[in-house]
Design brief:
Helix content: 40-55%
Number of helices: 35
Largest sheet: 9 strands, antiparallel
Radius of gyration: 36 Å
Structural class: alpha+beta
Distance between the termini: 45 Å
Number of strands: 32
């Protein structure tokens, strides 16, 4: 009892301090390598940077997949390691590999940078900044220098990505005509610009007993002072930077922008470090943001409810807890109705808190968080936690009453009766519990993301069930000795409850009838089993049920080559359309990408977050309205997902959709044509929605090729030629301008008149060897051509993806139809191949694993049964519960969702373990009565009646406790557990009903000659 008290105290403390998350960490150990490639086209980025990085890391220890994206000026390589690889070891491996290529990267490319250690599931919050008067540039500066550093300082924050607004620069916008007038070369200007903003040190002097440091203060943030820097003296007059250029504060060229509710905004995406408690981190973020708000301009508004993972966690955990509490109420009702004794009810119920608190302590020690999976495991086990205690208490209570009815001189001591009664059923209870645990063995053979997601559920279930067994073997008998041995209570409760007496009477009549019609009942059960197998073969197959996250993530893609401004206009129309839908609370959009952001979107791609609240319409009707509204916008492809589902898809296939059809090859144009053929082939398949072809297409480029003979004539080296293009048209950073601690780039480039169109580029002036200037077109061929916008690769091969989602149909049959259509309609050239990826791949692999490992599980169950009864025949009779349980589970799925998912399959596995308990109780009681000299039929009838009450109680508590979870499958957090609960609920009801008739009939048939 003292140990139980310590468990309650320790468990309560642990419950308040254990980490809470929505799911276990589902991301494979991934190292992200990002490289800025200043001004390079995608082909150069792929060839000179991405390929070099891929080649360096390819083949390293434990790498499972290598993906990359090369876009204009940016390379991202995702190095995915095998599950279980230590992330710090993975980062060290990649870092060492990158050192070997540092001398092979092109001049002008940045150093490859490892992204902060986070995961795709680690985005915890999105913060929106908007203002009425504050400019976009000042708003972005506030985000970069006021808000971001303070939030990054919080323990647990890994990275904050800032998107939108205008990134502030100090720019020297050069007029080459004026440079020619004053005979100033670009090289002279660059030297002056480099030196214009540098402090200097003059050592120190000692005077008046003090030491004075000598500092030359040339740094300034005043554009007039920067413009007054002398470049050279021309005709005895000093020529300043302001004479040949305009020095201004101006925005850097945009590579991305953001909006909230279709109005310009700055978005900050907060990513957490692995293993950090999301709820506690969100609390710290909220406190920090409340403090930051005090120092912001009055017109700046901060919105922290665009995306908050904590909200989904709280809703999910709250829903699972609610189902757990409601299930406990069902357990209490069943016990009270059957036992009609509050003492026995309290003793049995004490197993629930003790088991759950023990489970939480164990999870904490194992480093597992409280999440929807672990809580779901406990919720599914809730009805089973009292089973061992119920069986023990019911038998003890029955034996105590029988002992009390004896004459005083024949009565045994209460402790002796309790010990004997507990030992009588102890073997059956222990074996039944280990059989249920054995049924969960297949779960631990799952690999990949499905294993990471579902194994914590199995761990929580097994630990709680094992804890309930220990409670039943120790605490329960002790409590019985304290609470059930009073003479007054036994005298008052000397009969079974009214319900039990009537159930026994009805059962005795029906069982005798059933034993007369043995063949009819067995044939009927066989027909039901065959019918269930036929129905099962026609059920749809999904990997996971649809989540209900209360938010949409909509990917909007326009034609590549579109300008950022034009893309923004079209996506604003999409936001305005979404805001007309009553359920949509707000919209937040990211278009393009942020600096050093691993989500490397082109400016034609946007992600729109749409939190919603369902009121009068169902989710299906709401999504139909969303698709209808977006379908009216021409020239845009939309893919509709949800934040976490979206990320799970990305983990599985690298594509944010249910199905990814990957085309591998060399020629992007040919791959794009194949992709469009595939899209046309699958677009009309029933259930296929949001079909998109990855937009790796040719976009407009201005290609500049040197005329080498003319370069030689004018004495211009290739190096000078390349530097001119870089400085004049892209702009070159020469220094930092400091405003206090804020640092901004000082950039030199030609003004817009001399770089803003192809003619201006042709007429731009370049320096010759003798200081003269000539039009750039003299030494370069400048043409408007086309080239790829983005190049994606996987495992060192070029890849293009056709993605699709599934709606109102099961995933497996849709994929089967897609494969058939592709095989029929698509001709695959040599050196090209097609792969299918996505959730269906994981579903097929997991189903196969569960099917094979279930054989091992059944073998272990059979061996446990054989060890209990030492009879092949008796063990086989008990295994009849498996097909009996299958009947109810299949019919329940058929009449509810009609979908057989991985959680539903795990529900069947769980059901098989639980269902065998009832068979063990019956057979063990029959066997114990064989030496009493009774007729076999009388043994079966009396033995069945004696065990009816515990069988019904254990089955009903296990089944009815799952009703809240089964009915709340559309609630966040219950989506995965609900199919399991539905299967177990339906299977237990039918297996129990059939078990109390089929097992006695089969036992009678096999033992009809025995006395």
């Amino acid at each position: 009892m003292f140990a139980a008290f310590l468990l309650i105290v320790g468990g309560s403390y642990t419950t308040t301090n254990i980490d809470v998350d929505v799911f276990p960490d589902l991301t494979a150990p991934t190292v992200v390598v990002m490289t800025e490639a200043h001004g390079m086209a995608p082909e150069e980025v792929e060839k000179l940077i991405t390929f070099q990085i891929e080649t360096a890391v390819n083949g390293a220890t434990n790498i499972r997949r290598l993906r990359s994206s090369s876009s204009a000026g940016f390379s991202v390589v995702w190095v995915e390691f095998e599950w279980g690889t230590d992330i710090y070891l993975a980062r060290q491996i990649v870092s060492e590999k990158l050192m070997s290529i540092s001398d092979r990267l092109p001049t002008g490319a940045g150093n490859p940078t490892l992204a902060p250690q986070s995961s795709i599931m680690g985005e915890v919050m999105m913060i929106g900044l908007q203002a009425d008067k504050t400019s976009d540039m000042d708003l972005r500066t506030l985000a970069d220098w006021n808000i971001r550093p303070q939030l990054l300082a919080l323990s647990g924050v890994a990275q904050i990505v800032v998107t939108g607004g205008d990134y502030k620069q100090y720019q020297i916008q050069v007029n080459p005509q004026k440079m020619r007038y004053y005979n100033i070369s670009l090289d002279e200007l660059m030297k002056a610009a480099n030196a214009t903003n540098q402090n200097s040190a003059g050592g120190f002097i000692n005077e008046f007993g003090n030491q004075y440091n000598i500092r030359g203060i040339a740094r300034t943030s005043d554009v007039k002072e920067l413009g007054n820097t002398v470049v050279k003296v021309y005709k005895k007059a000093p020529i300043k930077i302001s004479d040949i250029a305009e020095v201004v504060e101006a925005p850097a060229p945009r590579i991305g922008l953001a909006s909230v509710n279709a109005k310009s905004a700055v978005l900050l995406t907060v990513k957490k470090q692995p293993g950090v408690n999301t709820l506690k981190l969100t609390e710290k973020l909220d406190l920090a943001i409340a403090d930051i708000k005090k120092g912001l301009p009055e017109d700046v508004t901060v919105n922290t409810h665009i995306f908050r993972q904590a909200d989904f966690i709280e809703n999910s955990i709250g829903n699972v807890k609610k189902a757990l509490y409601e299930g406990s109420i069902f357990v209490i009702i069943i016990l009270l109705v059957f036992l009609m004794n509050y003492r026995t009810t309290v003793i049995s119920l004490l197993a629930i808190p003790l088991s759950l608190l023990f489970t939480i302590i164990t999870l904490k020690l194992l480093g597992i968080t409280i999440n929807t999976m672990t809580l779901g495991g406990m919720a599914i086990a809730i009805g089973d936690l009292v089973d061992d205690a119920i069986i023990d208490v019911e038998n003890v209570y029955k034996r105590l009453r029988q002992n009390f009815k004896l004459p005083k001189e024949q009565r045994k001591k209460s402790l002796v009766v309790i010990y004997s009664a507990s030992c009588e059923i102890r073997s059956s209870v222990i074996n039944a519990t280990f059989i249920i645990i054995a049924a969960f063995i297949p779960l631990f053979f799952l690999t990949g993301m499905e294993g990471r997601m579902l194994q914590p559920l199995g761990i929580a279930f097994i630990i709680s069930l094992f804890a309930s067994l220990i409670t039943a073997l120790t605490i329960t008998p002790v409590l019985c000795s304290f609470m059930l041995t009073g003479d007054k209570m036994l005298d008052r409760k000397n009969k079974e409850s009214w319900l039990v007496r009537n159930l026994n009477r009805l059962y005795e009549k029906s069982l005798n009838k059933a034993l007369e019609y043995k063949k009819i009942i067995l044939v009927s059960a066989t027909v039901l089993f065959i019918a269930s197998l036929i129905i099962m073969s026609g059920l749809g197959r999904n990997f996971l049920p649809d989540f209900n996250e209360g938010s949409l993530t909509i990917t909007a893609i326009t034609k590549p080559g579109i300008s950022l401004e034009e893309s923004n206009k079209i996506k604003t129309i999409a936001e305005e359309a979404l805001l007309t839908i009553p359920e949509a609370r707000l919209t937040a959009r990211r278009t393009g990408r942020a600096e050093l952001d691993e989500h490397s979107f082109g400016v034609n791609t946007s992600e729109i977050e749409v939190p919603f609240t369902l009121t009068d319409r169902t989710k299906t009707e709401f999504l139909a309205d969303v698709r209808s509204k977006l379908g009216e916008i021409a020239g845009v492809n939309f893919a509709i997902g949800q934040p976490l589902s979206h990320r799970i898809d990305h983990i599985l296939s690298g594509t944010k959709a249910n199905i990814a059809i990957k085309i591998f090859g060399t020629d992007l144009s040919k791959m794009f044509l194949m992709a469009n053929d595939i899209k046309g082939s699958i677009d009309q398949i029933e259930g296929v929605v949001d079909v998109n072809v990855e937009q790796q297409v040719e976009i407009p480029q201005i290609q500049i090729k040197p005329k080498r003979d003319m370069l030689a004539k004018y004495g211009i080296s290739i190096s000078d030629f390349s530097d001119f293009i870089d400085i004049a048209f892209a702009g070159e950073k020469v220094s930092d301008v400091f405003e206090g601690v804020k640092a901004f780039d000082l950039v030199v480039k030609y003004n817009e008149e001399n770089r803003g169109n192809i003619e201006a580029i042709r007429n731009a002036l370049i320096d010759t060897w003798d200081g003269k200037k000539i039009p750039f077109s003299y030494v370069a061929d400048i043409k408007s051509l086309s080239g790829p916008n983005t190049i994606s690769r996987e495992n060192v091969q070029r890849k293009l993806v056709v993605s699709a989602n599934v709606s109102e149909r099961d995933l497996r049959s849709v994929v089967t139809d897609i494969k058939a259509a592709v095989d029929k309609d698509i001709i695959i050239p040599e050196e090209y191949r097609i792969e299918f990826g996505g959730q269906f791949e994981s579903e097929a692999k997991a189903s196969k694993t569960l099917a094979l490992t279930s054989i091992i599980s059944f073998l272990i169950i059979f061996l446990l049964l054989f060890q209990e009864f030492r009879s092949f025949q008796l063990a086989s009779i008990i295994l009849l519960n498996l097909p009996l349980a299958l009947i109810g589970g299949i019919f329940t799925i058929y009449f509810t969702s009609g979908m057989l998912s991985i959680p539903a399959i795990i529900g069947f596995i769980t059901l098989f373990g639980i269902a065998t308990r009832n068979g063990i109780l019956l057979i063990s009681n029959y066997q114990s009565m064989l030496d009493k000299g009774l007729e076999i039929k009388e043994i079966i009838v009396q033995g069945s009646i004696h065990r009816l009450s515990p069988i019904l109680m254990t089955a009903l508590t296990a089944a009815l406790a799952l009703i809240p979870m089964a009915l709340a499958g559309d609630k966040p957090g219950n989506e995965i557990q609900s199919p399991m609960a539905v299967v177990i609920l339906g299977g237990l009801l039918t297996s129990t009903l059939l078990n109390v008739y089929i097992i006695p009939i089969v036992y009678l048939l096999l033992n009809s000659k025995k006395k």
